[in-house]
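Note to self: keep these together.
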Amino acid sequence: MPALSPTMQEGTIVKWYKKEGDAISPGDVLCDIQTDKAVVSMETEEEGVLAKIMMQEDSKDIKIGTLIAVMVEEGTDWTDLEIPSSESAPQVEAPVTVTGTSNQSDFSNSSIRVFLPSVRSLLDIYSIDASHLSPSGPNGRLLKGDVLKHIKDNNLKPVPVSMPDAPTLTVSGMDSVGLTEMPVLMPDAPTLTVSGMDSVGLTEMPVLMPDAPTLTVSGMDSVGLTEMPSSSIPKPIVQTRKPLAPAIESDDEYSDIPVSAMRKVIAKRLTESKSSIPYLYASANCQMDKLIKLRKQFKKNGVHLSVNDFIIKAASIALQTVPEVNSVWSNNGPRPSPTVDISIAVAIDNGLITPIVHGANNLNLEEISERVKSLAGRAREGKLKTDEFQGGSFCISNLGMYGITEFTAIINPPQTAIMAVGTSRLTIRHDKTPQTIMTVTLSADNRVIDETKAFEFIEQFKLNLESPSKMLL
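Structure:
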């Protein structure tokens, strides 16, 4: 499994274009691989015969460096193949079990089974033997849903819990203690032992006590408890508690959705961005009436341009004017980009990808429009080439088509800035005339771009958008 992108750690075999026994020439596409960014075709630079496919189609989460196929030289008997050692094959760790014996319900087949707290609680409350349940979790793990289903199917009720007998209280070391007329309300009267006191007399202490106990005191003689009517002796009290039984939920009410490799990488990279970059924000409202009028003129002439096409063109001119914003962050610090390569955020089914309009400053509006349509279409089909989504010197995220008024976007490292674009909306001027405005917000890396440069960029971008005819020159 090759590394087909800088951030790729594992991949999925989508499709094999060659089968075992096929001759392979340099430049042939062996298979399609789903990376963390897109579906990429794997080409070979070798010549020979595909002898063995080790990982079939739809094999998921294959680590980089794992053996996925074996080639042999042309003319070799590929059917008589010696598979490489297991060092090259994927290693699968077997679940570890610890053997032992116990009479508790969470032991089964002489191996220790570990439950989540919620599972353990349900087993205890309903007095269920876990060995009678069929686990559905990974590696034979018993899930909460398994227990809830068993409870519902068997119409089980919580089992009452009895309180333990009263403990024995011991005191030692008293002399000449006399306890009389002491009725005490206590279940199963304890034995009392006291130590370290002399000549203590306790009299006329009416306490209700069942079954007059023998009071043992070290260093004392003749302790007797008398006049304790049996009618006053209560029976031991057995208390029951009503457990807080969770509501029985059907497994059909929810489902676990696996996180794609792309979304894992997006989450990791954007978390690193927010935690390691000092952010600077700058916003502006752009007047859009002239641009809308120009778009209508193009449309009458059969040329269909989107607002996003004008935004890309206006940004490319502003990046030339303020080159500090057109930069990337390297290990040694900021590095200005020699070309204006604008990434466009595109939503796809399993995440987000940023195809690049290379050399946007050298393209006219129609060329930008055609380039964006092609990139966005292939991005949604997962057919972008690596150099079409890796790199870029600036990024634009436009949510205007979803009616979002304004928002702030997260910088995609190693880029140092990203511009968030909201929807165009009607407002009223001070003179009571209507106007159409659009809010843009620049998120910038303050290590590279200071407040002055951020203002200059936003101001230049706004001038370009509000005077769209200048972008036609």
